[in-house]
Amino acid sequence: MSALLPRIQDVASLPMMVKQGMERSVELQSDVPLQVSRKHYLSLWNNEDPEGDIWTSGSPSSHTVLDVSNITLLSSLESCFRNTWKPLPLLVKIIHKSRLRYYGKFGLQIDYPFQAYFEVADQSGTMSLVLWNELCPEFYQKLSVGTVLYIQNYSLKQSYSNRSHPQMDHHQMKTFHSVEICLNARNPTSVVTVVSAKSVLPQWGLPEVSYLFTTRLQLDELSNNSACDVICLVTFVGRVERVKSKGKKGPEKFWTYRWIHAVDGSSDRPFILEVFSSSQPEVFSRICPMTYLVCTQMRVCRVEGSLPYLTSSCETETFITGYHKGQPYVSDPRVKTFIQWTKTLKDNVVLQKTSVGGHYCYPRPPQTFTQSIADASAQVPLVAAADLKKEMETLQYREHKKVAIQGQITAVRYTKHPKSTESRGTEEREQVPDVAPDVCEPNTQDHPSTAEQTTAPISTAEKISVRGIKRRIQTRKVKQFSLSLRSMAAKRRSSEIEEEEEEKRATLDLKTLRMSQTASEIKTQMSYLGKAAVGRSRNRKCLNICRSNLQPTHWTPEQSADTSPPVVCPGFYQVTILGINKQMAIDAAFLPVVSSDDPRAVALPQDPHGNTMLSCLSSGFLCPLSHSQSTLPQPEEVLGSAGELEDMHLVCILDLCHLGGDRVEVLISKVYRVTEVSKCTAL
């Protein structure tokens, strides 16, 4: 099967073996689950994305002649509510569209438990419209902002007060909040006609769709929770991660999101965007550097000590290059101004400043830690070291969680990323495809426990050559590459004394100070380091999109083999944290920001510090940040100051992310000394 699949271009063309007599079964011919009494699939990784062939789209709009002589206006619906009357038709335009909402749960006897909100308008004002159940698969993909609808046989209900609403002040129209229009497949059976753009007449008086585009320069003036639209050029795309939705009722649900940096030429600072999947899976998965990105109804988030960022709302829609055609915003003057600015750019210059994937988290933790261990709802909950293992075991695929633990740092080790994939040209990198992926990405399974790390560590060059031998690389140039690295390693270790000195410079293990007294008491030690933690530069589109996206929902033919793009950071520190109960220890990776070109450098406090191990863990970066790494301290210099961490009680902020299988990424983003912990926190 593994040899057959790469040659298959269309999975649907594969024959299906079925039980005799079931060849013409309706279930087999339909895109529905076979083993359960369900009529639709759910998205693998969240609850908002449409999944399956039942979600129709692209159907032609109606060109039929409409009788608009007997329609009613939205302004008259409030007075008709609760009266027994036959509703007159409506002629409205969609001005906002929300993401899908799935409300299914065990025992619910509804075939398609979906709901979607739209804001519609006519010449009298705006009102909410709700698409229910079976009508969602039929119409959700067809209805977009700017679409004109002719609606018959609808019902009216009192508005649901606990839902979000888009900000629509810029439309300058009256909003009717008391009732909402409901469209159902039965009781009554609603009739929805999508009117083609060519059939829309000016005398209908339907309003134009209005946008509120904001530049990066103007963003600094907006208040918290304000809504705005943005158009920008993407320079950084983070990996897709998942987070549990905040709803406490019903089954567990997830949202998928990714962090994005984008520029618009109005400021030296980029937009920092937290973009959630908005029921547009194709657009969301294809966001990549150098694409034009439009996000509507984004909300401003302000956190003390950080630059403002934008996050998606329920009404956010995203569009990228290839999806802009026909959208109402293309004629907006601010969009045209942005397009003119992009024509002044040189692609190769912008491309050198782009990166994809890796660990990214914003905003940074505050200067003072104030969460209490009793506050389970805190954004950064303080957990006991003994409970940390359970936290990681309960993580779902690509779920991200931030936690804080108390303890002491007992060991620090530095591991370099090999320079081969960074310094060699593209042609040479492509000649060593079997080596590059593992070299660029440290494997969690190859890291020994901290107790084993007290032995002499092998150098970077040795790691490459040993792995190359184990893989039995047959390519001559790969062999030559490994041999040259071994010869380089031999020259660097001309004597046993020099080797010992080099190891001391590369590793500082604080267990030699105090850990030996408690090593026998430690019941559990966890060592995790995810492959996906390190971001990658350059715009190798297909490869980088695959790396930063989730596991695909549908199988596609394998892409041609490609090598890993160069990593952004030169190496990482492995920090061993011993819990205050002395029963649990965990290894966490620390990836300091070492260059101002790193996306994580945006909004970092630029206060200088002494580049000690403690100051680096507290600030998250090496000082000073610049485009060149020549002025930065060497890892052995930073490790040389780690002695001050001995017996120091700390609160460590950890970022956890499940990478699939048994791989859990644990990164340390900040440490607090006792003096930086608020008194409300129980120590």
TrEMBL record:
It comes from Champsocephalus gunnari. This is RPA1 related single stranded DNA binding protein. Residues 442-457 have a biased composition (Polar residues). InterPro entries: NA-bd_OB-fold (IPR012340), RADX (IPR040893). PANTHER family: RPA-RELATED PROTEIN RADX, RPA1 RELATED SINGLE STRANDED DNA BINDING PROTEIN, X-LINKED. It comes from the Eukaryota. One of its GO terms (molecular function) is single-stranded DNA binding. Pfam families: RADX. Residues 419-432 have a biased composition (Basic and acidic residues). Transmembrane segments: none annotated. Residues 415-457 are annotated as: Disordered.
